[in-house]
Amino acid sequence: MEKEFLKSYELWVKSEYIDSEDREELLSIKDDEKEIENRFYTDLSFGTAGMRGVRGVGRNRINKYNIRKATQGLANYILKTTGEEGKKRGVAIAYDCRIGSTEYALNTALVLAGNGVKAYLFDSLRSTPELSFATRELKAIAGVMVTASHNPQEYNGYKVYWEDGAQIVEPQASGIVGEVNSVDIFNDIKMISEEEARANGLLETITKHVDDRFVEEVEKQAINRDIPGKKDFKIVYSPLHGTGRVAVQRVLKEMGFDSVYTVPEQEMPDGMFPTCPYANPEDKSVFKLSTELADKLGAKICLANDPDADRTGMAIRDEEGKWVFPNGNQIGVLLMNYLLEMNKNIPANGAVISTIVSTPMLDVIAKDKGVKIFRTLTGFKYIGEKIRQFETKELDGTYLFGFEESIGYLVGTHVRDKDAVVATLMIAEMAAYYDSIGSSVYKELNKLYDKYGWFVEETVSITKQGKSGIEEIGKIMENLRNKEHTEICGRKVATYKDFKLQVEKDMATGATKEIALPKSDVIQFILEDGTYVTARPSGTEPKIKYYICVVDSTKEKSLAKLDEIKNGFQAYVDSL
C-alpha cells in the first residue's frame, strides 16, 4: 500500500499548477523518502495567527502555493463576514528582508485582488509594527505581514492581523483557520495579474504618509525630552540586517540622539543574515560586532532589533565596564519601572499587561506602584486584545505598558503588536536619563533587585526536528498532564495550572478553579518557595520550552537555585 505522503508528493510533481523550477526541486528529492515525508506528511499548519515554516516546495513548507492558499482562505472569510465593506476597506500588506518575502507579499496582494478585495502593498520592506500601524491608519479590514521574525534564515512566514491592528484572536482566528483549511491548494485559488489588479484599482501602493504618521506616533511616547547630555550619549545600534534601520535611525535622530552609531556590517537588509545566522537579540552572540564597535567608541549601551523589528535586545556595561546582556524580563522590568517613575499622570485604573511566562517580579512592582497587572497567554496578540477591551470598556483599565519575556515591548497604543522602534527609543531615553544623573541601567537594575528580591529567570529550549520530534514534544506534554504532581526538585508543588484544561489546582487543599483564558497547551507549576516552572511547546518552531523563574534574597542564592531547578526539572521530565 502506497504511503500517503508519497501520494501527495506525486500529486504535486504532476500538477500543472506547480511551475517548472519548483517541479525540478521536487524531482531532486525523488530518491530521499525521509525528505519527502518531512515535506509531505502534513499540511503546513495555519495556526491562530498565521503560519511559519522552512522555505521549500511541499505541503509542509512555506512557499507561494501555501501563501496563496492562506490568502484565499483569508479572502473567503472577509467576503463571508464583512461583504462589500471588507472588499472596499481592503488589506494592508508588508514584508521583511527574508528570502521570498517580496514574492510572497505580491502573491498575497494578487490573490486578494482576484477575489475583489483591495490590497494595499508597501513598495519596499517595512517592520511588523508599521504593518500593525498601517492596518489601523488605512482603516483596512485586515493586515498581512510576511516574516519569520527572528527564526533562522531558512524560514519565512505569514501573520494575519484584524482591523484593530492586532494579530487575529477569536472569533476571527478559528473562522480564518477554518476557511484556510477548506481551500484546495490547486483548484480554489482566484488570482489576477499585477497589471490587472492596478488597472482595476484593486492594488494600491502605500505612500510615505504612513511612514511619517508611524514615526510621529512613536515620537509622541517620549517622556523626558530634555535630558542633559543626550546628544553626546553614545549608542551603538544594529538592525541585524533587517527592517528596523530606516525608522529607528530617523526616530533617534529626530529625538535628539546625535551620537548613534549603526554597526556597518549589519546595517543593510540581507535575508541570509551573514553575520548572525540566528538573528535573535535574545542571543548575546549577535552583539559581538556591536560591542566591538562600542569599545572603540566608548559607548555604554548597544541596542539591536530582530529582522522584522518587533523585538529589542541590549548590551550594557556593569560597574567594572564589562558587557552584560539583560534578558527580556530584565528589560521589561526596567522599562516598566522607568515609565511608572517618570509618568506623573498615571490614572487610578492604570494597567500593565504581560504574559503567564513573564517574571513574577512584575506583580511585586505593580503592587508597590499601585497599578493593575493583567496576565495573558503567550503571544502579543492577547496583549493587543486587552488594549481593545480597555478601549471598549469590556475591562476596566488604562493601558500603560505591555511586554512579553521574549524581548517584545509596547509603549503607547499606536500599534497593537510589540514594537522595537518605540522600544529602542524608550530604552535609549532611559539609559541617557540614568547616565545624566550619575547612574546607569545596570545600577538601576540592581536597585530593583535589592528592593523587590532577586528574581532570576531562564528559558530552556529543546529542539525536536521533523515528524518524530513533534510527536516527542506531544508525548512530553501528555506525560506531564497525566501525572499527579506533588513534589518537584525536592519542593512541594503549591499550585498546578493546566491551561489546556483551563484548571488551576491548590495542591494543599485540592480546591480547583477555572482559568479564564483561552485554551493553550501550557502547564505551569508554582512551588512552595515561589519558584515558577512552565512547560510550553513553541508555536513557531519545533521546540518545547521550559520557563523557569526563582527568587531568593541574594543573586548568588538565586543563581544556585536556578541551576538546581533547571537540572532537576529536566531529570523529572525524563523520569516520566
Your description of this structure?
This protein has four domains: 1-40, no CATH class; 42-206, 3-Layer(aba) Sandwich (Alpha-D-Glucose-1,6-Bisphosphate, Chain A, domain 3); 215-452, Alpha-D-Glucose-1,6-Bisphosphate, subunit A, domain 3 (Alpha-D-Glucose-1,6-Bisphosphate, Chain A, domain 3, 3-Layer(aba) Sandwich); 454-575, TATA-Binding Protein (2-Layer Sandwich), CATH 3.30.310.50. It is of the alpha/beta class and 576 residues long. The radius of gyration is 24 Å and the shape is globular. Helix 4 (64-89) packs across helix 5 (101-114) and helix 9 (208-219) packs across helix 10 (245-254). Strands 16, 17, 18, 19, 20, 21, 22 and 23 form an eight-stranded antiparallel β-sheet that branches. Strands 1-5-4-2-3-6 form a six-stranded mixed β-sheet, sandwiched between helices. It is built from 18 helices and 23 strands. The mean pLDDT is 95. Strand 9 and strand 10 form a beta hairpin.
For the CA atoms, what is the radius of gyration?
24 Å
Tell me the helix content: 25-40%
CATH architecture label of the largest domain: 3-Layer(aba) Sandwich
How does the major sheet shape up? Answer: 8 strands, antiparallel
CATH superfamily of the largest domain: Alpha-D-Glucose-1,6-Bisphosphate, subunit A, domain 3
Number of strands: 23
* Portion in beta strands: 15-25%
N/C terminus separation: 36 Å
Low-confidence stretches: none
Please outline what is shown here.
By secondary structure, the protein is an alpha/beta fold. It is built from 18 helices and 23 strands.
